[in-house]
Amino acid sequence: MKKRWFWFVLALIVLFPFQSSFANQAVKEVGKGSFSLQYPPIDFDNIGDPGYADQQKEPPETIYRTDRVEGPMPTNRWWSSLAVDTYANNHYPHPFSVRQNEKGLNVFYDAPHNVVVHENSGAGTWHIVGAISTDFTIGHSNEINFNDAKVDDYGDWHVRSLAEKNQSSLAFTYGVGIPYIFAEYTGGHAVIDFPQNPQIWAQQGHIIGFSTHDNKQYAAFAPEGSNWETNGQQWENPSEFISVAKLPNTDAETLALFAEHAYSVVRETRADYAVNHETNEVKTTYSAETEAVAGGDNGTLLALYPHQYRHLSSGDLVDGLNLFTIRGDMKLIEGSEFETSLTYTGVLPSLPNAGIDTDRLSGYLHEARNDYPTGQDTYELGKYLGKLSNLAPLADQLGEQELGDEFREELQGHLEDWLRSTDENNAIKGENLFYYNENWGTLLGYHAAHGSAVRINDHHFHYGYFVKAAAEVARTNPDWAQDDEWGGMVNELIRDFAADREDPMYPYLRMFDPYSGHSWADGLATFDSGNNQESSSEAMHAWTNLILWAEATNDQELLDRAIYLYTTEMSAINEYFFDVYDEIHPPEYGPEIVTINWGGKMDHATWWNSGAVEKYAINWLPIHGGALYLGHHPEYVERAYQALKQTNGSEDWNWWSNMVWSYRALTDPNDAQRQMEQRIDDYTEFDPGDETIIERGSTKAQTYQWITSLASLGQVNPEITANIPTYAVFNKDGESVYVAYNYDDEARTVLFSDGHEATVDGNSYYVSQEGSGPPPTNPPEEPEEPGDDGNVIERGDFTVSIEQSQSDRVITFTPNTPARYVDLHYRINNGNQENVRMQQENGKWFLMLPDVENKSLSFRFTYEKDGPQYESEWFTYP
């Protein structure tokens, strides 16, 4: 019996290698998935590019931080080089520019005369460059050669650095939106060194107002009784504390205001948000805690970016005191707290199919089954997942459930492969897995790309596609998304790039800068120009997908966080990438977009050798159900399109043509359709080496559906909101079109802010008027009447006749060219609008309206002609 029991147990081990009792101790099991706790044995067999092979390494081992900084280390911050380099590279706590070195802190700030706008016409690039130099260095009286500078503390928008050697130390506290730099000493006192003699314009002993050689205004503050000794290019103060402020002018009143708060060191900074799901208001409260180290006021001054003061809801700006930065003027507020209010404008799993030719879309969807991943790293595979995720809802809406399920099954297969770190033998895989790096507190996917492992770059871009795929699977299969199934590992990915404050394994909102209002893509930020972000649209894609996942899994806390991220980043993109208000980019700057935003410059360039289209469209792609924000400012959209067209020289787009058509459809879908029809079918099969017509992360199917549906739905209208996260509102010829998607199993009543109410069935789309919009409140001011005989309407495209038969009316629509469909939209006695597909016979389209004698009739038509869809005006009868 004992021998037989032995063989039984051995058989269990062979047959069920994943049982928890035999778990791989180097792996963390999460539901049915897992991630590795040790650096994986990377599979290099298919990697011929040495540069790509280098991408498969780990982040730097050394983190420059003191014992005060525990837990997961923040990355992707404007100050991240402080944790990576011995002293730190340039970083940009606007309104300052600073750099740590062995002596202390080099201080600089941009003035308008420092900013250079440069065009390289040969490369098609533009650059707005804020100079980096040294106005002065804040140092230490007893130490001129510190070994390093370390992160000693940080908040949502400030950092404290510490340099120590022997018995001396020098700590600096500074941050975005803080117009002061605070310096604290042990073992010595304050020294300021100037490369050129400054001009002193205010001397109060312990307070000095001064200007640099190029006329930039500062003030240096020491506690009362500690007077400055000015010896040409070197100043000293016996105090163990000083602060330096950037001033907007040299007025005595301004100096006095700054002096009131110069001794209150910022110790904590927080941006706390709240989402009102009835009104879609997103409120953010920015608060700073200060400590008065030398008496005086315990408050502070804060400098607000344009995306903040444009939406200020609490707090009073100080009139006339603006601080110039490369991102526009910052405006001052006195006090330790202010509040902003933004409006969340909704996202969708996809646009609803509106006005499309069902056979044509079906054909395109079946063509897309032949597409394949263009790589097996986190980005290329991610883009493929995003592509399939966009196709599945379109197939479902056509009633082709089997095709939609096929797309989701492929998504599920890829996800389950990547979300488990061991192979069939329970050994850690060499590719298609995630590994937790405890040193930095980050989840790294291998194979990695674009520095996603070695630099902790782009995690919101890459992992956002995985979340998109998971959300689409969960939309129809919620059981798959349970924590004890595969949802736990999806949430692990989300925690890496968008964790909450209390997460013990990952830093709070790794990718997102709460004060700057947008994400930073580079994990280490070791560039001369600081940190950067190129594809702002992929950041918005990530936040969209968090919203969809939160809705699919009923995660209210994540939903609020995702809405905050989506709405805030949108406000910053409109300012700094698009400049929709035409107030930030210099007048001599030619393009209508900044492609890459840095801390210290703005580029109209990409990370690769690109043409004109890519320099715009990298901030448009991917097109998806959360991309409608691109159309919120139609005047800007038109401006950007025309600028791109002028640069390109024609509508023969050199690359990613479908991206341009999709963007064009936001304001002129008829023109977008015209351009699309000329070229889309020249793309006969998937070719990732030729993206002239279709960008590799998109498809003919989604391009056709997006453009055609927008032609039917109209222009997105962000002014009307709804009490559901997944919605959109459009304006079609002055009429509102309401769209919503309900993730619940049961029907849900949705109330729009203009009073429109809709019952949305479970797991379904609602479109108020099948893409044509509700009727106007009043008939057109000058309605068209039938012809002279009372029952004929003639137009260039069609003829309409109305025949009376007792109390019924038969409406006949005869197009001058064959139409694939004709829809009649009508109202009887100014009642609710009805929408019906007319019946076709021998090229004519018919519909009988019964029992309408002595009743007024208002009607119009939606009809297809040579591909595009057209709308008639409203008519009345009799």
Automatic annotation (TrEMBL):
Keywords: Carbohydrate metabolism, Cell wall biogenesis/degradation, Glycosidase, Hydrolase, Polysaccharide degradation, Signal. This is glucan endo-1,3-beta-D-glucosidase. Residues 1-23 form the signal peptide. Residues 763-791 are annotated as: Disordered. It catalyses: Hydrolysis of (1->3)-beta-D-glucosidic linkages in (1->3)-beta-D-glucans. Its EC number is 3.2.1.39. One of its GO terms (molecular function) is hydrolase activity. Pfam families: CBM_56, Glyco_hydro81C, Glyco_hydro_81. The keyword Cell wall biogenesis/degradation applies. The keyword Repressor does not apply. Belongs to the glycosyl hydrolase 81 family. PANTHER family: ENDO-1,3(4)-BETA-GLUCANASE 1, GLUCAN ENDO-1,3-BETA-D-GLUCOSIDASE 2. It is an enzyme of class 3 (hydrolase). Residues 793-878 form the CBM56 domain. InterPro entries: CBM56, Endo-beta-glucanase, GH81_C, GH81_N.
